[in-house]
Amino acid sequence: MNLAIIGTGYVGLTTGTCFAEVGHNVICVDNDREKVEKLKNGYMPIYEPELEDMILSNVSAGKLSFTTDLAVAVHECEIIFIAVPTPPHADGSVDLSYIEAVSHEIADALRPEHGYRIIVDKSTVPVSTGSKVSEVIRRYAACDVKVDVVSNPEFLREGSAVKDLMNPDRIVIGANSQRAMDLMKRVYQPFSAPIVEVDLSSAELIKHAANSFLALKISYINAVAAVCEKAGADVELVAQGIGMDKRISRHFLNAGLGYGGSCFPKDVKGFINIADQLGAPMYLLKEVEQINARQIERFLDRIREKMWVLRNKRIAVWGIAFKQNTDDVRESVAVKLIRRLAEEGAIVTAYDPKAAETGARALEGVSVTICSDMYECVRDAEVLVVATEWRQFATANLVKVRELMHLPIIFDGRNILHGENAVHAGFEYHSVGRKSLYPER
Ligand code: UDX
Q1: Is the CB–ligand 1 distance for residue 236 below 6 Å?
Q2: Looking at the chain, which residues constitute the CATH 3.40.50.720 domain(s)?
Q3: Ligand 1 lined by 322 (C-beta under 6 Å)
Q4: How confident is the model at residue 142 (pLDDT cuts 50, 70, 90)?
Q5: CB-neighbour burial class of residue 56 (10 A; exposed 0-12, middle 13-18, buried 19+)
Q6: Å from CA of 255 to ligand 1 middle
Q7: Is 18 among the catalytic positions?
Q8: 0.90 exceeded by pTM
């Protein structure tokens, strides 16, 4: 099938590539000329495992192409996916101006000779956005073309986007027309995942409700972690114990510095906002946000408690990305932490395997030295803070780290180091929701 994807961000680019991989002909559209030129020449705008090879092989097989010309894509493809950003406004409501602009452009490009079109919303949007898109199409289309609007939310995680897209738990399709539903099911036929067929509004709500529930799980375990710290219990054991109940599951019960990234903070805010507007306030999610914000403060308090004044203390931070396997630093808790430490006058060094460049941009104006080697980063440091859950931090040579550091103190904000190993290497080890460990004297 011929598919157009408007927007080549994390969602658009990975979705388009995976569609090409399973045999569709895909045109990816973006209005950023530089990005499109880069992609045409085989340069990746983002780091995402497995993506580069898949893009290169599908481009050379003629199944995937890139253009800035939205009209051509609309003329050639019966199904047009919108995957443009939906950033938050200052009040938490969702900025739908990119969706509106693209809908308007699609309406302008519609021609009767090309026939029926389906516009699929892949971006995370508030419920009822689909009907607004339909209205825009009706208002601006210069001709009478039958168009259906569908919601098909994406659940991929950055860092495992290709894997998630190729093996989804479920595919949600929200359509108010059987013709659109049948065609969408053909798009997804090559994927062996159950399809949840629902109406447009329910599909839109599923995305906000799913992401908010996952954020809620994280905040729940972080609130439990705070209790564990006071009670001398171990949050990892508590998570294991409650997670073995299939109704709860162990997934997304990792205590730490809290959630970040381009989705959870924005989607929880967006859901709160739309629920408020609908007159059904989600107070529960307001608490989820507050717990998340408190997590970094609690962690900073514990570092201060140990180190007293942070001014001129040499603090090494491992991790800048908002999570492992990505170079994305949007709403990264690690970035917030580095900023806060620098503001308090600490001498901060930071290292991230993939997010050095994006991190340097996000931290412009902040006094921090970004290192290209994780061991160099800790040289002469008094404290090592682990802020992102990269696997290479968990397997680091802690004896070497101890030799390089000035003082033997680790604060693990992601609970990924092996505490006993840290202690054997001579460190005192502080983590989230667990007792601190000290070497025998
Ligand atoms: C999320 C959703 O998982 C995905 O389905 C949706 O499509 C987009 O939003 P993503 O933002 O890529 O994906 O990352 P995810 O792996 O969900 O992690 C989000 C944040 O939560 C990260 O900052 C991560 O460190 C944190 N997290 C995750 C925890 O603190 N604890 C956990 O147990 C899981």
Answers
A1: no
A2: 2-198, 234-441
A3: yes
A4: confident
A5: middle
A6: 12
A7: no
A8: yes
Q: Tell me, using a 6 A CB cutoff, whether residue 155 lines ligand 1.
A: yes
The CATH number of domain 234-441 is 1.20.120.140: no
pLDDT at 415 over 90: yes
Give 310-322 pLDDT, tens digit per residue.
Answer: 999 999 999 999 9
Fold of the CATH domain 2-198: Rossmann fold (3.40.50)
CA-proximal residue: ligand 1, atom 21 (nearest) = 259
Name the residue of 122, 214, 335 to mutate for ligand 1: max ligand atoms within 8 A of Cβ.
Answer: 214
Q: Mind listing the pLDDT tens digit for each residue in 321-344?
A: 999 999 999 999 999 999 999 999
C-alpha 252 to ligand 1 mean position (Å): 8
The yes-or-no verdict on residue 144 having pLDDT over 90 is no
CA distances from 301 to 155, 174, 305, 309, 385 (A): 35, 46, 6, 11, 13
156 CB within 6 A, ligand 1: yes
| Stretch 384-392: mean pLDDT | 97
Separation of alpha carbons 331 and 127, rounded Å = 24
Q: What is the per-residue pLDDT across 216-251, written as a single tens digit (0 to 9) for each?
A: 999 999 999 999 999 999 999 999 999 999 999 999
Q: Which atom of ligand 1 is nearest to the CA of 257?
A: 30
**Residue 440: pLDDT over 90:** no
Sheet order of strands, 79-82 included: 64-67, 25-29, 2-6, 79-82, 117-121, 147-151, 171-175, 195-198
